[in-house]
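Exam revision sheet. Question 4 asks you to relate a sequence to its structure. Input first:
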Amino acid sequence: MTTPCRPFHDPAKAQYDETLASKMTCLVDCIRDIASEFGTRPYQVQLVWTRWSGGERGNGVEEVIETQPLQPTPVVKSIQNLNETLQTIGLDEVGQLVVEEISPRYEEDLLAGIKNGTKIPDDVQFYYEITLYRAPTNPVRRRFVLRGVPSWNGTKLFWSVNIVRASSDRTREGIPSP
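Answer key, structure tokens:
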């Protein structure tokens, strides 16, 4: 005689908030934050939204309208993949990075720059900014744009994003370059 098995969990029918993985988010974030406390995650990653005064991206004066640091500090991989290449305006950094172990409490839309379910307006620019916080004051801020869509790793409980080096970094003081 066989014993009946309990029904399998169908994630398509359940809300993520009701899963065990969701309930572990705070614990996972606290454990990952220990690496930040030790200083082994020295790159701050923040989401940045700017608005252009001319009504469309790249037209007019750029002004920062919002920044949001990702907490706990995610892992920045492949920073050594950035290279300087000679451009017509001088040396410029190029390359792409992977940012992993982004907290599960963030939503895919936010990691793509989308707020309140609406697309990014034509006069707003969204990007990732990576800063190495070993410098005593005014560290270098590097601008990156999202390549593809954020990727959810359900077995390790984190988001990852592929980002590509972009020009026009903010100044060391955080002001958009003219």
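Marking note for examiners. The chain has a mean pLDDT of 87.
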